[in-house]
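Deliverable D5.2: sample structural annotation.
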Amino acid sequence: MEDIDLEAIHKKIGENVARYRKEKGLSQLKLSLEMGHSSVSVVSSAEQYNSSKHFNINHIFQIAKILDVDVCKLLEQEEV
């Protein structure tokens, strides 16, 4: 079994969220507010994988619903 690079997975999920968020025309702040957070820090840090911050599974499902995108699209690891 090959090693799993969780850092690379978290980074790619952040990139995917950023791409779909921008396609929907939502700012990081708007997405954060719709997720129930009062500041942009959760979304901005996780999109950039800043200080090892990443989206948890609840975030990913919330974001998929907000952006109206299949959750699998947020988890894809290959370039589209």
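Annotation notes: The mean pLDDT is 93. The radius of gyration is 12 Å.
The annotation will be released with the project's public dataset once the embargo ends.
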